[in-house]
Amino acid sequence: MPTERGRGRDRKPVPAPGSTRPGAFAAFGAGVLAALAGAGAGHLAAALSQPAASPVLAVGSTVIDLTPTPVKEWAVAELGSADKPVLVGSVLAGTLLLAGVAGVVARRHLALGTGLLVGLVGVATAAAVTRPGAGPADSVPGLVAMVAGVAALRLLLPPADTGTATGTEGDRSAARVAPGRRSVLLAAGVAAFAAATGAAGRWVTAYRSRGVDVALPAPADGAGSFPRGLEERVPGVTPLRTPEGEFYRVDTRLSVPVIDPDSWTLTIDGDVEREVTFTFDDLLAMPLVERDITLACVSNSVGGEYVGGARWLGVPLVALLERAGVGDRADQILSTDVDGMTISTPLDLATDGRDAMIAVGMNGEGLPREHGFPARMVVPGLYGFISACKWITRMTLTTYADDSAYWTDRGWVTDAPIKISSRIDTPRALETVPAGRRLIGGVAWAQQRGGVAAVEVRIDGGAWQPARLGPDVGNDYWRQWYLPWTAEPGRHSLAVRAVSGDGEVQTAVRAEPFPAGASGIQELLVDVE
Ligand SMILES: Nc1nc2c(c(=O)[nH]1)N[C@H]1C(S)=C(S)[C@@H](COP(=O)(O)O)O[C@H]1N2
Ligand SMILES: [Mo]
Question: How far is CA 71 from the centre of its chain?
Answer without folding.
Answer: 16
